[in-house]
Design goal:
The chain contains 22 helices and 6 strands. It is mainly alpha-helical and 453 residues long. The two termini are 32 Å apart.
Amino acid sequence: MWLMGDKLGIKSIKDKAHKAAEAVSNTKRAEDEVGTGGGNTVKRSKSSSSTRRTTSSTKTNTNTNRERNSRSRERTKAPTFSYLNGGLITTTVVPNVARTAMYNPIVSTVKMVKESIISPQPIVDLGITLASLDPGIGGLDKKSLDHLQPQYLDGETKGMGDDYSITTMVDNVKSLENLATKNRRASGVKTSVNELVLHYIRRDRYNDSSWTGVAGKIDSGFIEYVNKEKGSLTTYFKTDILVPDPLTGYDIDFVHLTATLNAHIYKTGYSDVGLEAVIPEYHIDNLAGWAGDFQQLMRDVILKTNNSDEYTVLYEEARRQMGNIDPKKSDFPMRDVLADADAVNICNKLGNKSLSSVLSDYYLKGGSDTRYRDFVSHSLSRGLNQRGRKDPKAAIAHSTAPYTMEHFMMPADIFKWPLYKRFNVSPTSAQSRAIKDAFTDFIWEQLENEKNR
């Protein structure tokens, strides 16, 4: 992880830090302070090469420390972040073992610094501790960092070495496609290349019975083949992957996207889900994506409002959660909204093309510019021109309404929506209407914003 020093004034901070350290090393006062542990320190865990860095002792001059620090950085290949700490230069080294997932050179470091400013505490995910970062140093206070919004939230995978930009993701998907092609020739498996790729990406997170029923059983032979042939892909395609959307800057839950896309490609039959196979395929596909997330939102809003039946209370809670940037505050956060919409759109562009080429066209060549228009057209326009409905917004509401009801087919309980069975939820008519309206208004706002972009 590294920080764009010139843009945030870090270069000048480093220069001042070096000068300050030289001045301190030439005074007896500084020796006393360092000898007694004066100033705050920064702890760090072992790097992959087991090197350690400590605060300058009273008997070590500054030049020797700089050479040692330089050699340590060369050995670990780990980027550093230096700042003034009680008049001394304190350097935090991020160990290689911590660099396992999403990478954004500016935002990740800003996130690290910002967390320490707001609530100093060990950052376990990074393998380091920022014990006490002075918010006044070099202007790196909360206000100056707020304009650089962090991409990652606490608890998410925060790798510093792997690059999850769209460009690198496309390259790694291509590698999976090449391996899938070779594996199909060698094994004679009939599963398509695109589906094998999707199997691999969703293998650890979307592989329980509910997902194998709607997206197909994962080809374990292909998983073993990839792990043997190219272990780096095993490391890269983690359980949770957040890909920054080039258009909006928001995170996309990429593994969620691939699982939903897999469900859209796969045709569910009786042997997969039993009697629930009577539910039309488009309903099953929707439930694997946006409609499933919507029904989770229904459950959460009902619980958060203590089973309220008041329209305003329900509507406002649904709007608060719908598309929230923080996934901890919603069962239908923005990262899932983007994943669901993009899965639908990419599926409709896929055809016989490779997934990597469609991903590249969609995210890097303007395909996502009409994200919501395409999503509504493919999944939320079934109500358009039905029963005299010519209003597109009314069509969205009409297409959403079935998923707010307790049953797919009334009155037999056997046809209660699967998720509502699992959640033990029975929405009332008031709850259905309020949460449906909140979802409809949210999607409509995204459409309007898209037009004005």
